[in-house]
Design goal:
The complex is a heterotrimer of chains A (149), B (399) and C (255). Chain B has 16 helices and 2 strands. Chain B is an all-alpha fold. In chain B, strands 1-2 form a two-stranded antiparallel sheet. Chain B is globular. Chain C has 2 domains: 36 residues; 155 residues, Alpha-Beta Plaits (2-Layer Sandwich), CATH 3.30.70. In chain C, strands 9-1-11-10 form a 4-stranded mixed β-sheet, covered by helices on one side. Chain C has a 3-stranded antiparallel β-sheet with strand order 3-2-4, covered by helices on one side. Chain C has a two-stranded antiparallel ribbon with strand order 5-6. The chains are: A mainly alpha (149), B mainly alpha (399), C alpha+beta (255). At the B-C interface, α5 of B face β3, α3, α4 and β7 of C.
């Protein structure tokens, strides 16, 4: 065998062995258990904290509001659609309060006139429909058609 | 508004038509333009060197070692733009530890290592081994010690062993040519295989990348050969220069034809994406595609070199033309990469609008880093030429 | 003897060829059994196989889904990062299409085209398609994005190197680089919620039930019912991504 190869072959062999050793230590735990990924990552993704509690959790305490909501056209809405994420509130009801949006623009997200909205949607011209009043001065957001006098 | 988002708000105001909201943040900037550019220079320079060795093109002998060293200098830097643009550069090793077999990008580490360790380093080592052994005996101090290490302990200079150098070296060059094709064809595949992007997704992409790589690599060697000879105040080998230019001319024709074929095919098929791509090349890409890449980088060199194939003016004129052509080609291929990488991200995948790319000075994707990765290979080449001067080797072999 | 040998080997050959042909035929036919998934059948039909439906006819463009997604998943509030957003399509009488998605629809939409010029207008909520033959999973060089056994495409943010190849590979623009984590981020189908039996945040807040989250393996489930009762399409079907995000009322203009 030529002397060059006598040196080169062990050199490359050593390189490959080093690579395999590095690989042994650097491939993370649980990698490849199910597919080409770190299996533990699934559990880590599951563990993330929730911010939205869900409608049922709200009804546990606010059963009156839930019943009101159910009785009118907003029955399909979740409490958190308007009030925002409520998980923290369910854990600390006294300290964490949810917002009660009362701006016209907030109601306008759904009800301002827009040709893209489906026809079943009740829509108004925000600028024309009682422009000086807040929507909730007449409409109870939990029972929109029970107009306040 | 926090300052880190300021450039994104500026981009947002530049958007024309509709783009998906996540597309405002353009993902691959200047550094990813450099990556195929530098890799292409490597592959091209190596293929030029192999011409001499495998096909025995004797006239190219003065540039053989120079081309190899150029390839090495650029190859050492080739991964740097890639790594420095990563969100987590220190996780880059993962690509070697758990390469995903379905990913077009995953195998790059291995292709790169194969090319660096098995092809380029070995070929240069075998080619220089005899000289390194002789120099290690003649030189003292730091340089002498460096030579001693580089011999790897193989100090045998018997004719039989030296013949082995040549035999193994030849074998490696033969292996090296497909490897060089693999290296750069593969870089083309990284882009060509993205089916979500109609500007990239073409089966010709690897071939186009390969030929543009050869064009740019040959132009680079031509340029470096002229500069190095000028620095050494030596007489340039016109025969070598003429034939490099001839090869450049031929490969440039092939490259231009292939790219033309790709575009004609695209225009004729006129698929769903045709309108937006047509707006792209006539709008945001007009300057870099039609003027920089096609006119300055392709047509002018093509015509000048073509004329020189028929009519040979005196040496000085030829040298000036070769020099300017090599620079124009290098400039043009850089913008070819630019048009692929940046161009492919300027239009929305919704095909309803455009975003903009603004080059930033600082930052990991900025101009300053890019300049570092462009200048560094020349410094490395300077070091390699100091350590392994091809001219010294030539003198010894002819004497 | 010799002829017998040949005969035998020929018979063997025919038998083998027939078997191979049979395999090939079933291999070719199999995908057609499961158009629903645009792909082959999920490996284990007794387990969950999550998918998603969106009823464009019910979407009122309130943008609560896009907002809730950011709230639930701590997505940066800047208007460049969305796991979930709403697009407004306006097709004008002259045939031109105008698409808008200001801040992903979170701040609501205004009608920017005068009514008399409008031929047709609608909203299209967008999110990750949780593709079965997902181009982003295919592209990830290190295995930092993957499809779970129950059909959700997730990111391993401790392993992602931030190369952005998956962002390029996604035809739907559903991925972004998280500006603080420097890793890729995308819709997880609220994996932390659905694996606890809850629904996704966007479904929770949708006021018109335009969004349907469900199990494609549950033949009596809500999603399969939705698919049965409506003419559903996926986005960019020609790219064969195996998308599991099904739209009712999807217009050809939507891309």
């Amino acid at each position: 065998m030529p002397p060059q190869l006598k040196t080169l072959i062990p050199l490359f062999g050593a390189f490959i062995v080093l690579f395999l050793i590095a690989r042994h230590f650097l491939v993370p735990v649980s990698f490849g258990e199910l597919g080409h990924y770190r299996f533990n990552s699934i559990a880590e993704n599951k563990e993330k904290a929730m911010n939205y509690a869900g409608k049922d959790a709200c009804a546990d305490c606010h059963d009156d509001k839930a019943a009101q909501l159910k009785s009118d056209v907003h029955s399909g809405l979740s409490c958190e659609t308007c009030h925002g994420p409520g998980q923290a509130h369910t854990e600390n009801p006294e300290t964490v309060k949810l917002n009660k949006p009362d701006q016209r623009s907030f109601c306008g997200n759904c009800h301002s006139m827009n040709a893209s909205r489906p026809k079943f949607m009740v829509q108004i011209e925000l600028k024309e429909h009682n422009p000086d009043k807040k929507c909730i001065e007449c409409h109870n957001p939990h029972q929109p058609w029970q107009l306040k006098e | 508004m926090e300052p880190q988002y300021q450039h994104l708000y500026e981009m947002l105001s530049q958007v024309r038509g509709f783009i998906y909201p996540n597309e405002v943040d353009l993902q691959w900037g200047l550094l990813i333009v450099l990556y195929p550019y530098i890799t292409g220079l490597v592959a091209g320079a190596f293929i030029l060197a192999s011409l001499e060795r495998v096909f025995n093109v004797k006239v190219l002998k003065p540039t053989y070692q120079l081309a190899l060293l150029t390839a090495l200098a650029f190859l050492l830097v080739a991964t740097m733009p890639l790594v420095s643009h990563l969100g987590h550069p220190f996780r880059a090793y993962e690509i070697l530890m758990t390469p995903h077999s379905t990913s077009a990008m995953a195998i790059f580490g291995f292709v790169y290592l194969w090319y660096l360790m098995v092809v380029l380093l070995l070929e240069i080592w075998l080619d220089y081994r005899r000289d390194i052994v002789i120099w290690s005996q003649q030189t003292t101090g730091f340089k002498g010690r460096l030579y001693k290490i580089l011999t790897l302990g193989v100090k045998d200079l018997s004719p039989r062993t030296v013949r082995w150098d040549d035999k193994i070296g030849y074998f490696i060059t033969v292996v090296g040519i497909p490897s060089a094709f693999l290296l750069h064809g593969y870089v083309g595949f990284i882009f060509g295989s993205v089916k979500a992007n109609p500007w990239w997704s073409t089966v010709l992409m690897p071939v186009i990348f390969l030929f543009s790589a050869m064009v740019s690599g040959i132009a680079l060697v031509l340029f470096i050969y002229m500069v190095v000879t000028w620095f050494r105040r030596q007489k340039i080998d016109m025969a070598a220069l003429d034939s490099i230019a001839k090869f450049l001319f031929y490969i440039l024709i092939l490259d231009f034809t292939l790219e033309g074929l790709d575009q004609i095919h695209r225009i004729y098929e006129a698929e769903e994406s045709f309108e937006i791509l047509s707006l792209l090349v006539h709008g945001p890409l007009f300057l870099t595609l039609f003027i920089f890449q096609i006119l300055l980088g392709t047509l002018i060199p093509l015509i000048s070199l073509g004329i020189l194939q028929l009519y040979k003016p005196k040496e000085l004129t030829r040298r000036i033309i070769y020099f300017s052509c090599s620079l124009l080609v290098l400039f043009g291929i850089f913008f070819m990469r630019w048009n692929v990488v940046i161009g492919g991200q300027l239009f929305s995948k919704s095909f309803y609008g455009f975003t903009d790319y603004k080059l930033r000075l600082a930052g990991s994707e900025g101009l300053l880093w890019a300049l570092v990765w462009v200048i560094l290979p020349f410094l490395i080449l300077g070091f390699l030429l100091w350590l392994l001067p091809p001219w010294k080797k030539l003198e010894e072999s002819t004497s | 003897m010799a002829t017998k040998g040949i005969e035998e080997s020929r018979r063997n050959f025919i038998r083998k060829a027939a078997a191979a042909g049979g395999l090939l035929a079933t291999g070719l036919l199999n995908p057609f059994n499961a158009i629903l998934y645009a792909v082959e059948k999920p490996t284990d039909p007794t387990k969950h196989w999550w998918g998603f439906g969106i009823d464009i006819e019910k979407c009122i463009g309130c943008g609560r889904c896009a907002n809730a997604c950011k709230e639930e998943n701590n997505v940066p509030r800047e208007p460049f990062y969305f796991r979930n957003w709403v697009e407004q399509y306006t097709i004008k009488n002259d045939g031109s299409v105008k698409v808008e998605s200001p801040n992903g629809g979170i701040d609501g939409f205004v009608q920017t085209v005068p009514k008399e010029d409008i031929f047709k207008a609608f909203f299209v909520p967008k999110m990750c398609n949780h593709c079965y033959k997902s181009p982003c999973v295919q592209a990830c060089p290190v295995g930092a994005t993957y499809e779970t056994p129950d059909g959700v495409v997730l990111v391993d943010e401790t392993y992602c190197i931030g190369c952005r190849y998956c962002v390029q590979a996604c035809p739907y623009g559903c991925r972004y680089i998280h500006p603080e984590k420097n890793t890729v981020d995308k819709c997880t189908l609220c994996y932390h919620r659905i694996s606890k039996g809850k629904t996704t945040a966007c479904v929770e807040v949708c006021p018109t039930q335009a969004r349907i989250f469900g199990d494609l393996n549950d033949k009596n489930g809500e999603l399969v019912k939705f698919l049965k009762e409506h003419t559903c399409l996926v986005l960019k079907p020609h790219l064969n991504t195996g998308s599991k995000l099904y739209y009712n009322g999807l217009n050809g203009e939507v891309r």
